[in-house]
Amino acid sequence: MTADDANTYDVAAIRRDFPILSRQVNGRPLVYLDNGASAQKPQAVIDAVTRAYALEYANVHRGLHTLSGIATEKYEAVRGKIADFLGAGNENRIIMNSGTTEGINMVAYGWAAPRLRAGDEIILSVMEHHANIVPWHFLRERQGVVLKWVDVDARGELDPQRMLAAIGPKTRLIAVTHMSNVLGTVVDVKAICDGARARGVPVLIDGSQAAVHMPVDMRDIGCDFYAITGHKLYGPSGSGAIYVHEDRMAEMRPFMGGGDMIREVTQETVSYNDPPMKFEAGTPAIVQMIGLGAALDYLTGLGMARVAAHERGLRDYARDRLEGINWLNVQGRSPGKGAIFSLTMNGGAHPHDISTILDQKGVAVRAGHHCAQPLMRHLGVTATARASFGLYNTQEEVDRLVEALELCQELFG
Ligand code: PLP
Fold this sequence. Notes:
Distance between the termini: 40 Å
CATH superfamily of the largest domain: Type I PLP-dependent aspartate aminotransferase-like (Major domain)
Structural class: alpha/beta
Largest sheet: 7 strands, mixed
Shape: globular
Mean pLDDT: 96
Radius of gyration: 22 Å
Low-confidence stretches: none
Number of helices: 16
Bound molecules: pyridoxal-5'-phosphate
Number of strands: 17
């Protein structure tokens, strides 16, 4: 961020865009540090959703009446916004869906399942979210596909060369996160994609966390699949998308059948709509997607580079404060990580107790395994308390977090 950018990133004004941030929780001003699970919504998103239901609602695509035309236009405009946000180059590379879980399952069922045979391999990192593990376990259970795991190092970093070194003659896919939801580690996915492409191995990237915190560009990264989820991007739950490279799109089969994705259905046969519609069966989450469009407009208005710079400042401040506390373990120490801090206390409070006490102080964090049990095992813990920051958080909120943690230490230490 330049000095000019720093002056124009007015976090106080940004906070006023999010009505929930002015409420109190347990008698204290809310400090919302659970953005890794789901982010709060700006008024612009709330207004877009309200307007869509109040004035512009009808089912999309096939209607010839006015409201259906308006709803279709608003809904379809979001595809272009997602394509721009992801640097996809072409909106036909974007399949709209309910979020990352659906996106990855679509690839597992529609692309991988028909192509992979027993003994074929999928490479995963040990820090994947269950959404990028369980669909591949289905293929292991049902088709004998082999899952190959690549560890992270002591700082929680994933070496792209280790991932590429795991490629063998039977490797059919690499599935990897762009940013860990537990450690905040940012993975050099471009290096993985470059190396994998040279060996003819497609790469699926779980962009659920990364796309929220930094600019991402599909043409630069060069991946085959990139899944995002709307509710973490300050949009409604039930909205999301996956970018699919045109060559993979051509190879993929629809995994859900129904209305909207067909060209013609007879008693004997069926033909399909062109991609991406071919992969969008049934009535979509119309209003949620319109809300996601408003969220992407909001983010684009702020500028993702400026959001990233603001969050780097928060990360550095939080890192200095948290890593200086000798009774606290901060899991994941990659210098370039995002502003996500997974905490455990040496011989002190359990993460669930930490979360409960913090909540009494108005500080919302998440405790548990964060849908990353293989990573928990790798770290040798069963759970952590996770403080995950977003574009509206402040250094004062880091101080409130530390004060509340000190109270935990007094009570349990
Ligand atoms: N991948 C990562 C890294 C996540 O953090 C999450 C959500 O917590 C998901 C996937 C799943 O996203 P969703 O539940 O929105 O499908």
